[in-house]
Amino acid sequence: MAAASVRIQILKANASDILTDLDLSNDELSYLLDLALEVKRAPREFAQSLAGKSIALLFEKPSLRTRLTFELAIKQLGGDSVFCEGPIGGREPLKDVARNLDRWVNGIVARVFSHATVEELARWSAVPVVNALCDGYHPCQALADVLTIRQRFGDLRGLKLAFIGDGNNVAHSLMLTAVRLGMNFALGCPEGFGPNPEVLAQAEGLSATSGASLEVTHNAARALDGAHAVYTDVWASMGQEQESARRTAAFRPYQVNAGLFGLARPDAVFMHCLPARRGEEVTDAVMESPRSVVFDQAENRLHAQKALLLMML
Ligand code: CP
Predict the structure, then answer these.
(1) What is the pLDDT of residues 135-170, one digit of tens each?
(2) What is the 8-class DSSP label of residue 268?
């Protein structure tokens, strides 16, 4: 229960798991951002919020930010975490892994190759499962990203976020999250590298409800026009390294350099989920520019994930 000096009551999410960005309602999403700011303002007030609770971190892929911010978030909220790296379900069926874990821990945070893995864990586990990145989504990243934009610009409604690059898991989560919050979203990508059509259709439905605009274009300049935030990600995600040469050729015109960044608003911020490959999707000058907020995003992983854990556990 929140202490008296905390300015916000902790409300629990309706969903039992966070597998995609859509598992939180619009109201819960807005509330999570408020809670994250409060947790950031007064971290000590939440120091016992997860006392007596344990969370398993299962990572099939490498991580710096996600692993450390979840471990720190859990520790700073008074809980315990255990970490397990490697294929989930390699030695035994996923349904058995899930039913072992839920006898020991109060929650599971999983970074996986396939979305089906988190779905299967959630299906068989009695405790909440949080998707810490899969091939389709990166919901925890999107939470930190919209928190970062809100800190910079205030009210999110009517702002424009331009994602330049691959229509990948990070783009999917940003698209779904941004339009629900009333942000206009444009994806500038090469032909053949657009978002998953099903995710795009979901985002179109959400944007129709919120009144946000949503556009996928192969014209980067068009995507950048009027943008408050310019976002990019690596051209070959984890597991796509063998496609690197083909992707480099296709994405080269979409590099966020001073010229491309200059097509956005003069006060636009540069964003990247990290790790970045300087000289590929972004130049060193843009990464290091005063308008780069990439390390604010990294910091906000901690605050946003604390808020998410408070709502889920
Ligand atoms: N942005 C992100 O998820 O970073 P890691 O891969 O280091 O966790």
Answers:
(1) 999 999 999 999 999 999 999 999 999 999 999 999
(2) P
All structural domains of the chain, each given as residue ranges with its CATH number in brackets, are 21-137+299-312 (3.40.50.1370), 139-297 (3.40.50.1370)
Please give the number of the atom of ligand 1 that sits closest to the Cα of 69.
8
Cα–Cα distance between 12 and 205 in angstroms, integer?
Answer: 26
Specify whether 41 is catalytic.
Answer: no
Ligand 1: residue whose CA is nearest its atom 4: 65
Q: Are 13 and 311 in contact (CB under 8 A)?
A: yes
pLDDT in tens, 59-69: 999 999 999 99
Task: Report how far ligand 1's centroid is from the alpha carbon of 133 (Å).
Answer: 8
Where does ligand 1 bind, in terms of residues with CB under 6 Å?
Answer: 63-66, 133, 141, 273-274
E-strand stretches of 151-228: 160-164, 184-188, 214-217
Q: Which atom of ligand 1 sits closest to the CA of residue 66?
A: 8
Give the closest residue to 115 by CA, choosing from 239, 206, 265. Answer: 239
State the DSSP code for 154: S
Catalytic site includes residue 172: no
Ligand 1 centroid from CA 274, angstroms: 6
Cβ 283 vs Cβ 256: under 8 Å: yes
**Which backbone phi and psi does 227 adopt, to 5 degrees?**
-75, 135
Q: Is there a catalytic annotation at residue 23?
A: no
